[in-house]
Specification:
Elements (H helix, E strand, L loop, with lengths): L2 E2 L10 H10 L11 H14 L4 E5 L2 H12 L5 E5 L3 H4 L4 H5 L4 E5 L8 H9 L9 E7 L10 H13 L3 E6 L2 H6 L6 H5 L3 E5 L9 E5 L8 H7 L8 H13 L1 H23 L12 E4 L3 H9 L2 E2 L1 E2 L5 E4 L6 H12 L2
Length: 337
C-alpha cells in the first residue's frame, strides 16, 4: 500500500496527542475520570463552546452517539437523521441497542445535509400508534459527504424541532474540520444543541470521543448509564490526556486545517487533471469522485487505498498527517490511469 485515503482513521496519533498521553502517565491520579487531566481537558472544551456543560470521555464515537440519542428519545420513539448519517448506516443498530428500541427515521438531502423541507414533512406526519414518532434530531458536522452546515442551515433545522419540545444531537466526529472550514464552535450551544459528541479520534487523538451535555438536566444518573454501557474508564486520564494535548496546543484545529487544505489540493488537481467529476462540494477534509469501477480497482492495485461510498462515488479522506507530496503522487497516479 502506498497510502490509505480510505479514512482519516488510518492516520496515527498526532504528536501533541501522543505527548498528552505520555504526560498523563506521570505519577498517580484519581480514578474514573475525577483526575486533573480530565478536568483540564473538559475545561478546554467548555472554553471553545463558550458554554457550561457536563463532559465525559468515552471509548468510541459509536458509544458516544448511541448513549447521547438514548438520552433524547424513549424506546417507543425515533430520531430524525440524514439517511447517510453514521448513526443510520455504520453503527450496527447501536442507537436502538443502547436506547432499548429507539428507532431512526432517515431523511434525504443533498451532499449529506438534511433537506429542511423533508424535515418539515416528517415533523408534520400524524402520530399513530403503529410507528415510532420522532422525539429528536441528529445532525452531523461536518457531514458524511464532507460538507459543512452553516449556522443558518442548522437554525432552519433546529428551530422547528425545538418548537415541538424535541431534543437535538450533533455528531461531531469531524467537528474540527468544520471549525477549520469556518464554522463558529460557539454557535453549537446558541443554536440549541442538547448533546454534542466532540470528536477526537479523527482529529488525531486516540480512539476516544467526548460526550458534551449542553443540557445538563440530561445528566441524571449519567455515571450509572456510562458504567452499564461499559464506557467508564478506571484510568480516565488516558482517554482525556490526548484531548488535552491537542486542545492546549491547538493541534486539534491546526491538524484539521491542514487536512482540509490537503483535500482542497486534491480536489483542484482532480478537477484540472482528470476526466472525472467531483461528486460533492469539497468543504472539509473529504473528496468524492465519480470514478468508474475499473479505474477504482486499478488505483487500488497500484497501492492507493480509497473507498467506494454509499452513493457510488469514490471517497478520499485527508488527515492531519497527509503530506502534500503524497497528494501530488496520488494525482499523478490518477492522471495516468
Amino acid at each position: 500500500m502506498r497510502y490509505d485515503f480510505g479514512s482519516d482513521n488510518t492516520a496515527g496519533m498526532a504528536p501533541a496527542a501522543l505527548r498528552g498521553l505520555i504526560d498523563a502517565n506521570t505519577g498517580p491520579a484519581r480514578a474514573y475520570g475525577t483526575d486533573e487531566v480530565t478536568m483540564r481537558a473538559a475545561e478546554q472544551i467548555r472554553q471553545r463552546l463558550d458554554a457550561d456543560a457536563d463532559i465525559r470521555f468515552v471509548f468510541s464515537g459509536t458509544a458516544a452517539n448511541a448513549i447521547a440519542l438514548s438520552m433524547l428519545a424513549a424506546p417507543h420513539e425515533a430520531v430524525l437523521a440524514h439517511h447517510s448519517a453514521h448513526v443510520c448506516t455504520d453503527e450496527t443498530g447501536a442507537p436502538g441497542f443502547f436506547g432499548h428500541g429507539v428507532g431512526l427515521i432517515g431523511l434525504p438531502g443533498l451532499s449529506g445535509k438534511i433537506d429542511a423541507r423533508a424535515l418539515e414533512a416528517a415533523l408534520a406526519e400524524p402520530e399513530v400508534g403503529h410507528r415510532q414518532p420522532p422525539a429528536a434530531l441528529s445532525v452531523t458536522q461536518s457531514t458524511e459527504y464532507g460538507t459543512v452546515y452553516t449556522a443558518e442551515d442548522l437554525r432552519q433545522l433546529i428551530e422547528p424541532v425545538k418548537a415541538r419540545g424535541y431534543g437535538v444531537h450533533m455528531d461531531g466526529a469531524r467537528l474540527a474540520n468544520a471549525v477549520a472550514a469556518g464554522f463558529d464552535l460557539k454557535q453549537v450551544a446558541r443554536l440549541g444543541v442538547d448533546v454534542l459528541v466532540f470528536g477526537g479520534a479523527k482529529a488525531g487523538g486516540l480512539c476516544t470521543e467526548a460526550i458534551v451535555l449542553l443540557d445538563k438536566s440530561l445528566g441524571r444518573r449519567l455515571e450509572n448509564r456510562l458504567k452499564q454501557a461499559g464506557q467508564t474508564a478506571s484510568k480516565g486520564r488516558f482517554l482525556s490526556g490526548p484531548f488535552l494535548g491537542m486542545l492546549e496546543s491547538r493541534a486539534w484545529e491546526d491538524g484539521a486545517d491542514h487536512a482540509n487544505r490537503m483535500a482542497q489540493r486534491l480536489a483542484t488537481g482532480i478537477a484540472t487533471r482528470s476526466p472525472w467529476a467531483l461528486a460533492h462540494p469539497v468543504e472539509a477534509n473529504a473528496v468524492f469522485i465519480r470514478m468508474p469501477a475499473k479505474a477504482h480497482a486499478r488505483l487500488n492495485d497500484l497501492g492507493w487505498a480509497c473507498y467506494r461510498f454509499d452513493d457510488g462515488s469514490v471517497r478520499f479522506v485527508c488527515s492531519w498527517a497527509t503530506e502534500e507530496a503524497v497528494v501530488d503522487e496520488l494525482l499523478e497516479a490518477i492522471t495516468g490511469l
